């Protein structure tokens, strides 16, 4: 049993310092978990922490999927000699689409999400009913169990102050059989710690620097709780069009040393970051100051496909300079406090051998296909993605300007997030959310076509729960009606009709990669601008020449000996003719 007081934790009566690192099971392939977790253990950590993304497990109302992946990951942690911490949300932030909340749900409940609204709570309860058995049977004390603690919500004090909501979640975890300690995690600000904590539930803090200050803030609120940094941000995430973030290994190691010296338990965020495969990346929104109503300077900032995070284990799972620096800090701590740096078993940890890497080469694209849109929906207004049952992907919206209209300006309203506009079949503009468009005009009878793409739902701040698509198109002041909307999901992609045909914009293109043996590789589309890449029907994610990321990591489990299909959808003006494979990443 895990117990605690102001001095620290005890496991089955003996003192324990929790030395944890975050690894998200949904950001690497299951075949890679053993190596990732063995490396975590080899760094000297004794625990691994993961979030659970609700929207991955309930992609449509009541349709639950892939729940056993959580259990399988926790079982692998046990094999690798690691205790575990589970953070099941329902909201997780994590630079993950919509902070883990299902888009179909937030479209319905809107601003009632993350409150004690009965409709929102009913959906959470239904999810917890099916998810939590994965955790309950793997709690510490049960055979093969490793789960030491379970989190309630995520940084709730940075969002709201509905104490009934947090109390309902804590009660729901208990009623479904969670017996290990519950905890909350919040920024070390007084109002966040005040609203984000729950009476009788352990409180922890999240920070990247100034451990002494953050632990002092925690102590002011919770003199009876041990110091625990639930997210020690040793790196940071990237967004498309922004800089690549790195943090000096020495500086990061110094903060870790100070956390341990202050008596703290710690969870490295991240130990291994991984990849935002498919359309799972979230987005940020630089909101205006809290007392301002001016939203014009609040750009939308979609998160990159890579979630390398400049973590001690890079996206491929290889140890970096930060790994060595952290391992030294932990080894020094363990030498000084052998009674605190305890482990689940006594095996000497070993760094796994790296997976093989493919040589540089080129794959020519030689087949093309029209986009396999789903059946058209007719509506007086352009239906939102969520109204079409689409979480992500593309929608082709078409209508015609009423006859006898003169040439007048067109305005696209509420675009989420990017669109190419065609007038009478010819490209007229590329539109982006939050970016002032070039003026476009159209006259009576003009065929309007907008191919709208979602780039990820905001995962932090007031815009969580946003919807995708567009809210309207106006011709001068007059709304256009009579819309036809055709959805195109991307993961999985409906089967297209391939032909050797001729390249043209906005087509799917594919080629074959012949391999003797699989290996890790990094893909680029040298002639591409912005689009999506699939490997054997698995959607790797978005690419974008804005960077900072220039290569897409393709993990070896997605490849096989013999022929492999590489498919791309380029949304820029040129159709690429080739895909390049590189032996190392370029994250900018
Ligand atoms: C917060 C959240 C995490 C993550 C980090 C930034 O601490 O709790 O989920 O979003 O910020 O990476």
TrEMBL record:
InterPro entries: B-gal_1-like (IPR026283), BetaGal1-like_ABD1 (IPR048912), BetaGal_gal-bd (IPR048913), Galactose-bd-like_sf (IPR008979), GH (IPR017853), Gly_Hdrlase_35_cat (IPR031330), Glycoside_Hdrlase_35 (IPR001944). Keywords: Glycosidase, Hydrolase. One of its GO terms (molecular function) is beta-galactosidase activity. The keyword Metal-binding does not apply. Residues 510-564 form the Beta-galactosidase galactose-binding domain. Pfam families: BetaGal_ABD_1 (PF21317), BetaGal_gal-bd (PF21467), Glyco_hydro_35 (PF01301). Residues 384-488 form the Beta-galactosidase 1-like first all-beta domain. The active site is at 155 (proton donor), 231 (nucleophile). One of its GO terms (biological process) is carbohydrate metabolic process. Residues 9-331 form the Glycoside hydrolase 35 catalytic domain. Belongs to the glycosyl hydrolase 35 family. PANTHER family: BETA-GALACTOSIDASE RELATED (PTHR23421). This is Beta-galactosidase. It comes from Kitasatospora cineracea.
């Amino acid at each position: 049993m895990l117990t605690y007081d102001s001095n620290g934790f005890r496991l089955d009566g003996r003192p324990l310092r929790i030395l944890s690192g975050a690894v998200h099971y949904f950001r690497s392939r299951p075949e890679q978990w053993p190596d990732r977790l063995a490396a975590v253990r080899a760094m000297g950590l004794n625990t691994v922490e993961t979030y659970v993304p609700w929207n991955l497990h309930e992609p449509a109302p009541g349709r639950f999927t892939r729940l056993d992946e959580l259990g399988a990951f926790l079982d692998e942690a046990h094999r690798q000699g690691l205790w575990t911490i589970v953070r099941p949300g329902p909201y997780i932030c994590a630079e993950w689409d919509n902070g883990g909340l299902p888009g179909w749900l937030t479209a319905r409940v809107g601003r009632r999400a993350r409150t004690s609204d009965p409709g929102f709570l009913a959906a959470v309860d239904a999810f917890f009913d099916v998810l939590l058995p994965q955790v309950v049977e793997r709690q510490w004390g049960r055979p093969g169990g490793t789960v030491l603690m379970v989190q309630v919500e995520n940084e709730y004090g940075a969002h709201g102050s509905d104490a009934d909501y947090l109390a309902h979640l804590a009660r729901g975890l208990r009623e479904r059989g969670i017996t290990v300690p519950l905890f909350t995690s919040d920024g070390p600000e007084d109002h966040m710690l005040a609203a984000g904590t729950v009476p009788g539930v352990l409180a922890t803090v999240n920070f990247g620097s100034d451990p002494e200050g953050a632990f002092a803030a925690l102590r002011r609120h919770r003199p009876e709780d041990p110091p625990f940094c639930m997210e020690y941000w040793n790196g940071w995430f990237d967004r498309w069009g922004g800089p690549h973030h790195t943090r000096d290994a020495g500086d990061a190691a110094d903060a870790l040393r100070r956390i341990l010296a202050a008596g703290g338990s710690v969870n490295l965020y991240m130990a291994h970051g991984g990849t935002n495969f498919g359309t799972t990346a979230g987005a940020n929104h630089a909101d205006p100051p809290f007392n301002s109503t001016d939203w014009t300077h609040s750009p939308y900032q979609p998160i990159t496909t890579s979630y390398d995070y400049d973590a001690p284990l890079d996206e491929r799972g290889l140890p970096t300079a930060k790994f060595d620096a952290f391992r030294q800090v932990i080894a020094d701590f363990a030498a000084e406090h052998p009674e605190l740096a305890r482990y689940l078993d006594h095996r000497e940890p070993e760094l796994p051998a790296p997976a093989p890497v493919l040589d540089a080469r080129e794959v020519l694209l030689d087949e093309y296909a029209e986009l396999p849109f789903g059946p058209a929906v007719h509506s007086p207004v352009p239906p939102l993605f969520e109204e079409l049952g689409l979480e992500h992907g593309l929608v082709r919206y078409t209508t015609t300007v009423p006859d006898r209209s003169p040439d007048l300006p067109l305005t696209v309203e509420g675009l989420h997030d990017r669109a190419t506009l065609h007038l009478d079949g010819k490209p007229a503009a590329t539109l982006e959310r939050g970016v002032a468009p070039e003026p476009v005009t159209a006259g009576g009878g003009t065929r309007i076509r907008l191919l709208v793409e979602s780039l990820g739902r905001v995962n932090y701040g007031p815009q969580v729960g946003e919807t995708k698509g567009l809210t309207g198109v106006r011709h001068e002041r007059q709304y256009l009606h009579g819309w036809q909307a055709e959805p195109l999901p991307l993961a999985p992609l409906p089967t297209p009709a391939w032909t050797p045909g001729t390249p043209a914009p906005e087509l799917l293109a594919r080629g074959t990669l012949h391999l003797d043996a699989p290996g890790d590789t990094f893909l680029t589309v040298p002639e591409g601008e912005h689009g999506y890449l699939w490997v054997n029907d698995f959607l790797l994610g978005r690419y974008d020449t804005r960077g900072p990321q220039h290569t897409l990591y393709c993990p070896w489990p997605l490849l096989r000996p013999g022929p492999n299909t590489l498919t791309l959808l380029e949304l820029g003006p040129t159709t690429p003719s080739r895909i390049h494979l590189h032996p190392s990443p370029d994250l900018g």
